[in-house]
Amino acid sequence: MSPHSDPLADALLRPVKAGNAFEETLARLLQAIRLGLAAPGERLPAERELAARLGVSRVTLREALHALQEAGYVESRRGRYGGTFVRSIRPTHPTPPPPAFAADVEDVITLRQVLETGAAESAAARALDPTTRRHLRTRLEECTGAVVADYRRRDARLHLAVAAAAASPSLTAAVADLRARLDALLEAIPPLGANIEHSDQQHRAVVDAILDGDPAAARTAMAEHLAGTAALLRGFLT
């Protein structure tokens, strides 16, 4: 990869947004690899250079590179000529994506932004009864720190609890249907520890805003959380 001489590389390896630095860093690197800016067997730029270009810390960059290595996109080599190299054999989706796969990803992302940010805002605007407040806290604590094998199921339960707190059965049903579509997409993405830790922090911000009765903060926190998942979906699946 020679990012200094390639305008496309300049476009891809630009500073990421601070709110979802890990997810966006991972998505940018994935996009660069999949578009061929780094050929199979080629070494990626040095960590110092990548971190500077993406505007992230070395820690965040290393977490993203580790996730790519775990997913099978890159490999780390030691020694004088070591570094991070693009693997010659790329991982594939568990099943071939249908022709409308990318369009479905964008459809799910858009629907989540509309439905789930609205659900969080509506829930925060209500005077929640003790049972609903307790339910939200329980779902949050179940999700926080959950092992990878259980995380997505508990994550789904938390998001549905937020929707239910808005007290609109139609909205809750719509979010449930949407979650089934989202889970089908997430099956093609490896669970990422750094993303889970970040999601835990964002989940708490969402629930805290709802329980504090702050609709604007709840909507903003949910939008930022969904943007992180959107970055991963686009990075891995489109």
UniProtKB/TrEMBL annotation:
Occurrences of domain HTH gntR-type (ranges): 19-89
UniProt keywords, alphabetically: DNA-binding, Transcription, Transcription regulation
A Pfam short name: GntR
Keyword Nucleotide-binding on entry: no
Cited Gene3D superfamilies: GntR ligand-binding domain-like, Winged helix-like DNA-binding domain superfamily/Winged helix DNA-binding domain
InterPro entries, A to Z: GntR_C, TF_FadR/GntR_C, Tscrpt_reg_HTH_GntR, WH-like_DNA-bd_sf, WH_DNA-bd_sf
PANTHER family: GLUCONATE OPERON TRANSCRIPTIONAL REPRESSOR, TRANSCRIPTIONAL REGULATOR, GNTR FAMILY
Protein name, as recorded: FadR/GntR family transcriptional regulator
Organism: Actinokineospora guangxiensis
